[in-house]
UniProtKB/TrEMBL annotation, chain A:
Record's subcellular location: Cell membrane
Record protein name field: ABC transporter permease
Major location category of this protein: membrane
Stretches assigned to the ABC transmembrane type-1 domain: 99-304
Chain ranges passing through the membrane: 9-30, 105-126, 138-165, 185-204, 239-265, 285-311
Assigned keywords, A-Z: Cell membrane, Membrane, Transmembrane, Transmembrane helix, Transport
Automatic annotation (TrEMBL), chain B:
PANTHER family in UniProt: DIPEPTIDE TRANSPORT ATP-BINDING PROTEIN DPPD, OLIGOPEPTIDE TRANSPORT ATP-BINDING PROTEIN APPD
SUPFAM superfamilies, per the entry: P-loop containing nucleoside triphosphate hydrolases
Protein name per its UniProtKB record: ABC-type dipeptide transporter
Keyword terms: ATP-binding, Cell membrane, Membrane, Nucleotide-binding, Transport
Originating organism: Alloalcanivorax balearicus MACL04
Reactions catalysed: a dipeptide(out) + ATP + H2O = a dipeptide(in) + ADP + phosphate + H(+)
First-listed, main subcellular location of the protein, grouped into a coarse class: membrane
Topology within the bilayer: Peripheral membrane protein
TrEMBL record, chain C:
CDD domains hit by this protein: TM_PBP2 (cd06261)
Regions that span the bilayer: 37-56, 101-127, 148-172, 221-245, 265-289
Locations listed in the record: Cell membrane
Superkingdom of origin organism: Bacteria
Topology class, membrane: Multi-pass membrane protein
Name used for this protein in its record: Binding-protein-dependent transport systems inner membrane component
Species whose genome carries this gene: Alloalcanivorax balearicus MACL04
Keyword Cell inner membrane: no
Main location: membrane
PROSITE patterns the UniProt entry points to: ABC_TM1
Region annotated Disordered, chain positions: 1-20
Pfam families given in the database record: BPD_transp_1
Keyword terms of this UniProt record: Cell membrane, Membrane, Transmembrane, Transmembrane helix, Transport
Similarity field: Belongs to the binding-protein-dependent transport system permease family.
Amino acid sequence: MGFYVLRRLLALIPTLFIASVIAFTVVRLVPGDVLDLMLSENVYSSGAPEDRAQLEQALGLDKPLYQQYLHWAGDALQGDLGESLWRNTPVTGEIAARLDVTLELGILALLIALAIGLPIGIFAAVRQETLGDHIGRTFSILALAVPNFWLGTLVVILPALWWGWSPPNKLVPFFENPLENLKTFLLPSLILGTSLSAVIMRMTRTMMLEVLRQDYIRTAWAKGLRERRVVLMHAVKNAMIPVITLVGILVPILFGGTVIIEQIFRLPGLGQLLLEAVSTRDYPVITGVFLVTGVVVMLVNLLVDLCYGYLDPKVRYDR
Amino acid sequence: MSTETSTATATATATPRTEPAATLLRVENLHTVFEKDDSVVHAVNDVSFDVRRGEVLAIVGESGSGKSITAMSLLRLIPSPPGQIIGGRVLFDGQDLLDLPDDAIRQLRGRDISMIFQEPMTSLNPSLRIGRQLAEPLRVHGSVPKDKVRERCIELLRQVRIGDPEKRLDAYPHELSGGMRQRVMIAMGLACLPRLIIADEPTTALDVTVQAQILELLRDITRASQSSMMLITHDLGVVARYADRINVMYAGRIVERGTAHDIFHRPRHPYTVGLMESMPRLDDAIGNRLTPIPGSPPDLSDPPSGCPFHPRCRFAQPRCKQERPPLERLDQEHWKACWVNLDDTH
Amino acid sequence: MSLSIQTPAAAAPATPPRRRTRPKTLRFLQRLCKERPLGALGAMICLVLLLTGLFADVIAPEGFNAINPIERLKAPSAEHWLGTDQLGRDVFARIVHGAQLSVIVAFAATTLSIVISALLGILSGYFGGRLDMVIQRLVDGWMCFPDLILLIVAVAVLGPGTWQVILILGLLFGISGSRIIRGAVLSAKQNVYVHAAQSMGASSTRILLKHILPNVMAPLIVLYTTRLAAVILAESGLSFLGLGIPPPEPSWGGMLSLDGRSYMFQAPWLAIAPGIALTVAVFGINMFGDALRDLLDPRMRGGGGRYLARVKRTIGS
């Protein structure tokens, strides 16, 4: 198992390299030069060409692009993503300060999505074509169509209109007061989780239907097992394998969702940092956040692969 | 003509009519249908037979003849929807399995009647270890005290001649060969010492050499434990060597029934005759060609009128098209459903 | 020697061939209505959306951008069916013209994305080898980034605007969709007749056009419909964040954006109408796309799951 993990980690390196190249170059495709922007904002600048050259040198922008990349990548490997253009604070620190909000929101939402999606999906498959199945499917069809930012907006506006209640937006660190902290996160993660649960539910239902048709399920019935045991012991574990892959596919979508939800509920997460950086054209921050999201997705996919190995015995030894 | 002689012998031998006392399972007028799109497929139609204690009863037929569905109907393992048992009785020890509450039939499955399925490759759960799957019937039915379960599993694997059973318990199905998996399936079927084992094409997916081993194993074990076996197969060679009595099924019905000797040496239904002729025989005179039965099995959602076999039957008479022949007794053990009287020289 | 019953396989099924008198499209519509009523409903919604987009100026001629300070934040009435917004613009007119915008963006971006997917997928899948390796690693790297984050960064680079959004969405979905097309190409390539065609000396172009493309058509069409909904959602999400289509264009997402939130407390209809329009549109396209998938490409039936698993296997990742 340890060897397998190591091999998977090594396989990540080329992807990581390409992702970092993409993160680095995309941001540098900007038409208007950052330098002009910085110079025009800088009150002390006289607009003289020497100032420009000086700034260019200070930011390392005078070197060829590949050198800039190597320099940046070298620093990034040591955890240094450069400094914010405006605040001169290290980008790594800015990201670290925001990452926990996003991760908490994302993890809670994923848990909620699984808690809603898995049982309903399993139930809908076991009781195919019953009222429960139809209700579950209708719910998932709706949840797939309702955009999460609309749902979020409604949740902020309607209770405020009807009962004068608005969601708490005071953020208390989790370890200081877990209860208050969870109160703040409950509604945002519920909205994000509900819209994700639809996909999980649909997938679970299809996979369960597929598995319930298998020969080994018939064997399980022929042994005289109770329905609960047939479903939970024999069907669910096999149906989970593709569903786990789906979780890997969902994580990037989840990331996108956190950006929107953070905006609606004014949570100071990574998404908000990114949007601030975009509006101030703070390129080192944009590149940094961009890279970090990519790396997180990569790591989650690695985790999914490992879960795969745990659930599917065939994977464990070969490959 | 042969007509008179055969009916004469039938009445003569049938007079004593000693009812075989040791009936374990009696199936009466079983009728199972499947709904397919807008039509209804009569997969098993008015099937009656019995299984006696200690015997190996074979059900033979082409694929699609309803033999597997018959077997699954007995334990109510028909997936519903689309399948449904719409009539008949299945008497096991005098109680009707079709009438039992769900929980009672569940407890019977695997304990009193067990099933061994045809696909050893897919009939074991790929994500659970062999030991766990093997132990399941034992645990569920409480046949063995909890601390003895592992011991019993090892014993079972040894019984089906799997080497190194302690190690195999921890293996996953994909780590075993097809023959090995089928042995595990058999071990699972035997776990609770059932009184009836239903083996549905137990060897079809296996190599010829392994087939013989598995079948001998099955026969030896059923003999030793004095249980009965229902052997479902399309393979006449298997039937010839292992079955005591044979039911021949065609288009969801039993068309002929008799002892293995009757069926092989005095087949009386044209379909059975056709099967024999399409089967290569070791004792055949050189030059006798194999003659396959012309045509294909009927569409069971729209079966032909009269005898279901008449479109393919070379002896068909006008009557066969209009009236369906009932299953009638020829002599003590020999039954057929056919209007035509065949003799040995057909 | 195995002794078994042999059924001659020669006998053909007795069902007579179907009458082919009705045109293909009509028969398809009949199947749609009969087998997938929800899909038919989805098709209706798509049609309504399309017509609204085409005839926006006829349906709401007053103009979506007629600012009228006296009429601001009016509740729905006979005159303004869906009320007015903070600038006194008619919300109904804006929804109708928003449909037009959504239709334009959806079709333009999806068409672009499908072209990119098809090109990349066929290039990678058909020619294989080192080219495939390079393209796949690039796609791997690209797909690490969450869609929305990529979109935001791309907008930061290109600046907001309708054409920018179309370009970015087309590129984004084009690259991720190439995987599915590549999978379809690979499986088509494995079919015997392509080998046969190759050994008979047919040219690459001919094989591509005659053998590969027809097999890729079904997944392409399915991909197209599912992408339409995804594009509409992504565009509205971006506009919601204020990074998509800039005001005063009447994007549904933009109408829900945070800038207008404070007015929504006074005039909740501002928050209701665009959301319902979006939901109904996405619902309709999804349902239609699902039905299309089931009817056109049975291999993809049963959700993305089995299909994804199969694609994953072919990719070998």
